[in-house]
Amino acid sequence: MTEYLQVSTAFTTRQDAAYLARSATHSRLAAAAQVIGPVLSMNWHDGALVETEEWQLVLRTRIERFDELTAYLVDRHPEPNPEIVGVPIVPGTRSYLNYLDRRTSPASL
Q1: Which ranges constitute the DSSP H helices of the chain?
Q2: Separation CA 12–CA 38 (nearest Å)
Q3: Is the entire prediction scored with pTM above 0.70?
Q4: Is 109 helix (H, G, I), strand (E, B) or coil?
Q5: 53 near 40, Cβ under 8 Å?
Q6: DSSP classification of residue 91
Q7: Do 103 and 32 contact (CB within 8 A), yes or no?
Q8: Does residue 96 sit in helix, strand or coil?
Q9: Which residues are within 8 A (CB) of 90 and not within 5 positions of it... i.e. 6 or more apart?
Q10: pLDDT (tens digit per residue) in 60-69
Q11: pLDDT averaged over the chain?
């Protein structure tokens, strides 16, 4: 199993995505975050295919921080059941992975 993840979720507003990018990074749950968008999303909702414009939030963290990061995002996300997924970072440069370790370590607070 990998030690590092790229975690993503989406928001209907840039402001919500930016707020959580800033706060999750500030609290060291993620080492870095990007807000990408707007992006065009298609999904099923109440039996219909819905097309929406969203802002994607992408965060990078260590796998042991995933549950805490997920709880943090769910608690602050405006949607009641947000999509939050983690994708393993395999491989990554050793210098960047060391950066992830330093920036997501509770000792660095």
Answers
A1: 14-26, 66-76, 94-103
A2: 9
A3: yes
A4: coil
A5: yes
A6: S
A7: yes
A8: helix
A9: 2
A10: 999 999 999 9
A11: 93
What is each CA distance from 30 to 17, 21, 65, in whole angstroms?
14, 9, 8
Do 55 and 36 contact (CB within 8 A), yes or no? Answer: yes
Place of tokens 């950066």: 99
Query: H/E element holding 87?
Result: strand 85-88
Interatomic CA distance for residues 18 and 24, integer angstroms = 10
Tokens of 4: 């590092």
Dig out the tokens for 1 from the structure.
């199993």
Structure tokens that stand for 19 in this block: 């707020």
Indicate the length of the chain as a whole number.
109
Nearest residue to 58 via CA among 39, 80, 82, 32: 32
Structure tokens at 10: 């989406």
Residue 108 binned pLDDT confidence (cut-offs 50, 70, 90): low
Residue 45: per-residue pLDDT: 86
